[in-house]
C-alpha cells in the first residue's frame, strides 16, 4: 500500500521594497500572524521584526523578505528576514552615549536565540526565535 506524505506548510511570505516604510509593514504582517494563532501579546515580535527589517533596509541590498512561522519542534515563533547584502549583523558593545547601533544588542537579550545564515544565491537570512 503506497504511503502519502504531505508537503510541509510554506509560511506566508512578505516581500518589501527597501524603504523606510518596510518596518511598519513588517510589524503589521507579524501582528496579523499572531492574531491568526490567537497570540494576544505581539510586543516582542513587533520589536524583533522591526529591528531585523530596519537593519536589512539600512545595511542590506535588494528586496527584503519576511517570514513569521512556528517552529514545528517546539512551537516557538521564528522571525526570518532575508536580504541580498553580504554583510553580517554585528552586535556592538553597550554604549550609553550612542544614538544608534543598540537595537541588535537589545534584541539578543529578549529572544530565545538568533543567528544568520548565508543563502546559496547570495545574501543572508537573519532570524530570531521568540521566547
Automatic annotation (TrEMBL):
Ranges in coiled-coil conformation: none
Keyword Transferase appears in the UniProt entry: yes
Domain Histidine kinase/HSP90-like ATPase span(s) in chain numbering: 22-127
GO MF term list: ATP binding; protein serine/threonine kinase activity
Keyword Kinase: yes
Top-level taxon of the source organism: Bacteria
InterPro entries: Anti-sigma-factor_SerPK, HATPase_C_sf, HATPase_dom
Pfam families tied to this protein: HATPase_c_2
Keywords in alphabetical order: ATP-binding, Kinase, Nucleotide-binding, Serine/threonine-protein kinase, Transferase
The protein, known as: ATP-binding protein
Lineage start: Bacteria, Bacillati, Actinomycetota, Actinomycetes, Streptosporangiales
Amino acid at each position: 500500500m503506497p504511503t502519502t506524505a504531505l508537503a510541509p506548510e510554506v509560511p506566508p511570505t512578505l516581500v518589501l521594497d527597501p524603504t523606510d516604510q518596510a518596518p511598519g509593514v513588517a510589524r503589521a504582517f507579524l501582528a496579523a500572524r499572531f492574531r491568526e494563532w490567537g497570540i494576544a501579546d505581539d510586543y516582542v515580535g513587533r520589536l524583533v521584526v522591526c529591528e531585523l527589517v530596519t537593519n536589512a533596509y539600512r545595511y542590506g541590498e535588494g528586496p527584503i523578505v519576511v517570514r513569521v512561522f512556528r517552529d514545528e519542534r517546539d512551537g516557538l515563533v521564528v522571525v526570518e528576514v532575508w536580504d541580498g547584502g553580504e554583510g553580517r549583523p554585528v552586535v556592538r558593545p553597550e554604549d550609553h552615549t550612542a544614538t544608534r547601533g543598540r537595537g541588535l544588542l537589545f534584541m539578543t537579550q529578549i529572544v530565545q536565540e538568533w543567528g544568520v545564515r548565508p543563502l546559496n544565491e547570495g545574501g543572508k537570512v537573519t532570524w530570531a526565535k521568540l521566547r
